[in-house]
Write a structure and sequence with these properties.
By secondary structure, this protein is an alpha/beta fold. It folds into 2 domains: 149 residues, 3-Layer(aba) Sandwich (Rossmann fold), CATH 3.40.50; 68 residues, DNA polymerase, domain 1, CATH 1.10.150.240. The chain has 9 helices and 6 strands, in the order βαααααβαβαβαββα. Helix 1 packs across helix 4 and helix 3 packs across helix 4. The mean pLDDT is 93.
Amino acid sequence: MTRTLQAIIFDFDGVIANSEPLHYTAFRQALDEDGIDLTAADYYAHYLGYDDVGVFQALGRDRGVPMGAARVEALVTRKGERLQDLLQGGAVLFPGAVDFIRQAAAAVPIAIASGALRHEIDEILQAAGVDSLFRTIVASGDTAESKPSPEPYRRAFEQLRAEAGVLLDPRRTVAIEDSRWGLESARGAGLRCVGVTNSYPAQALGGAELIADGLGALSLDALDKLCES
């Protein structure tokens, strides 16, 4: 069938992988060793949309704590080690995520734009058997600025267009996000915006043109209709 939808770019944490609670625990454990407290409420309210470097830099600014490059690098390394320990606990994909990814990849080119580290994304996708379905992945460190800057989604769109060999239209390309920071990034890149309520309620997903309870509640037909408008 001919689709109005031309491509999909997924966020990773909070959309495909239910790893946000694990990320918070890893951040908290890394910061505990420096005597810095980070509550869950504070993390979800202020820092969830950043990549690892951005979290520590923003936290330093907000708390008046010096966060030089060496200290941030050490914290990022420590946080990554804690996260790897936590990820050994088992599958972290949201219900319905794999089925939707397979359906999407069979219909249109798909990509990821995420603030997660590339090796974390790769390991989880490989374990789920869907790593080969994504044409391109933009991860932490691939752009000069992280979300809410439009750079990650802009880079993913440009790379996806090059990989697909098709002149993709950003208004027919859907970004799927779980936070207002991610939606702001996608909107700034000119993409259509879908929000999923895995991390925040619908009322906190300002800027989403369509909201669903997760990938398992989405359909390609619904994304087609969105791109028609």
